[in-house]
Design a protein that fits this description.
The chain is an alpha+beta fold. The chain is 48% helix and 10% strand. Strands 2-6-5-3-4 form a 5-stranded mixed sheet, sandwiched between helices. It has a 4-stranded mixed sheet with strand order 10-9-8-13, covered by helices on one side. Strands 1-7 form a two-stranded antiparallel sheet.
């Protein structure tokens, strides 16, 4: 991170460090905190020098180095908050103070920043009077095919008669409350009712906007509208992903889309658990959200409060330059790097799901079938290379990888696919290597060579990419 004006000298940092280190920020916590702060300053699409000055100050006092920040590129916000949740009370109060200070360093608090801070504080389970009885978490969901923008959705794992009845009764009040923060209530039962009641118009709309749908598919949609429930839609849109990642939705919830103009392959949502009364749950949440800057650290000794005061940055009343940094700017940066010799080689990020992304190409996904991904990941793990005739020796590991990333549930189908790909007398292996090559060329063109599985006949096949450029979200899942 480029440094601008510093608030304290190197000697002062050295003098303060022993006291600051009493707050137990380990290396993973520093990386996670850097991720949180980076997302916050980019949430409104504008980064100004006041924010950068504040970051510089915090990074110096907490000794967050360039080594820490380089690790955050492929860290999702929800994972970062998971790590911060394990911190003690003093450290969490320090995070509160930093978030408040950073959010006001540009002299204004954007509604998106306020929502994001609320989600962060609730996710790390900070102990404040204002957060008691509010149960919420931020989740980062990748690759949704839609953007809910300012919508607030009602989501449930099973149809909850009592909660739905209360929402129907309080629907107008809920909508009015959300509109005050420029949010729109997207209540799936009412959406389905409207689709059903305006069936003919909706059918005609689909005919124009989704021209690839056949008459049979349109008829099927028309038939199934009346049978679809909130729980069905919730499961398909959100819950399948959440359950796979160990997040169980035990109660009905409101889903807030957290708007963020920074380039990312994730969409972040605040999941607010409905506690008995939906309207009261929202009112309590907004009481917290609307008073973010007034929250006071809680449960600290005088000594701990003095330690936290060292995080205070000196006010800078000079004109603060500001720049936009959006997804389009990220594409420009990636393009500039692409045409700069050695910097043209992008890192690869292998997500827990097995999806493969090019970190320095705007996190674009290299799409291929699950079995092709499994084969590619196997070769990534074996830098020394594998002779195709000996691929059978890696059958167990290949099956483990494929079993983890495949959407098929039947073991027999999975084992058959693996048997076919390691059969050197068949064509499945070579076909998949060709598909992998095609996938990378479609994204990288002539720059794809280093990423391909290649080698002379009867010799080991390898991927020649420097493994320092390969990052696994969780390598142990595949080994």
């Amino acid at each position: 991170m480029q440094k601008y004006n510093t608030f304290i000298t190197t000697e002062e940092v050295a003098r303060l460090q022993p006291k600051i280190e009493k707050m137990k920020f380990k290396e993973i916590h520093k990386t996670a905190l850097a991720k949180v702060l980076s997302d916050l300053i980019q949430s409104d699409g504008i980064v100004n020098q006041g924010e950068m000055d504040c970051l510089t100050h915090v990074f110096e006092v907490l000794n967050i180095t360039a080594a820490s920040t380089k690790k955050l590129a492929n860290l999702s916000l929800s994972n970062a908050l998971f790590y911060l949740k394990s911190l003690g009370n003093v450290e969490k109060m320090a995070i509160l103070k930093i978030l408040q200070q950073l959010s006001m360093s540009d002299d204004s608090l954007d509604p998106n920043e306020s929502l994001l801070i609320s989600a962060m504080l609730l996710s790390i389970q900070i102990d404040l009077p204002e957060t008691h009885d509010i149960h919420a978490s931020l989740v980062s969901i990748p690759n949704l095919a839609f953007d809910t923008q300012n919508a607030v959705l009602y989501v449930e794992s099973n149809f909850d008669t009592e909660t739905n009845t209360k929402i129907e009764k309080e629907y107008d009040k809920i909508c009015d409350l959300l509109k005050k923060s420029n949010r729109e209530f997207f209540y799936l039962p009412k959406v389905l009712q409207e689709m059903s009641s305006k069936r003919i118009t909706f059918h005609d709309t689909l005919s124009y906007l989704e021209p690839t749908l056949s008459d049979e598919q349109l008829a099927l949609i028309n038939t199934n509208i009346d049978m679809m429930t909130t729980a069905d839609l919730s499961k398909e849109i959100f819950l399948n992903y959440l359950n796979i990642n160990g997040f169980n939705l035990e109660k009905p919830c409101f889903f807030f889309k957290i708007s963020n103009k920074m380039p990312s392959r994730f969409q972040n949502f605040l999941i607010l658990e409905i506690d008995n009364d939906p309207l009261q749950t929202l009112q309590q949440f907004y009481q917290l959200n609307d008073n973010i800057t007034q929250l006071k650290p809680n449960g600290l000794t005088d000594k701990e409060k003095r330690s936290l005061n060292r995080l205070n940055a000196k006010a800078n009343h000079e004109q603060k330059d500001e720049v936009q940094y959006t997804g389009f700017h990220k594409v420009i940066i990636d393009t500039l790097l692409k045409y700069n010799g050695s910097q043209g080689i992008s890192r690869i990020f292998v997500a827990e799901s097995g999806n493969i992304y090019l970190t320095d190409r705007n996190n674009i996904e290299v799409k291929m079938s699950s079995i092709s991904k499994a084969l590619y990941i196997l070769f990534l793990l074996h830098e020394e290379g594998i002779k195709l005739n000996y691929l059978v020796d890696h059958k167990k590991q290949l099956y483990k990888i494929y079993r983890h990333i495949s959407t098929y549930g039947e073991d027999e189908l999975l084992r058959t696919a693996v048997d076919n790909i390691i059969d050197v007398t068949g064509t499945t292996m070579s076909a998949n290597i060709s598909r992998i090559k095609k996938s990378f060329i479609s994204v990288l063109g002539d720059d794809a060579t280093l990423y391909l599985i290649q080698g002379n006949r009867n010799e080991k096949k390898t991927i020649n990419l420097d493994r320092k450029l390969v990052v696994f979200e969780n390598r142990s899942l595949f080994e």
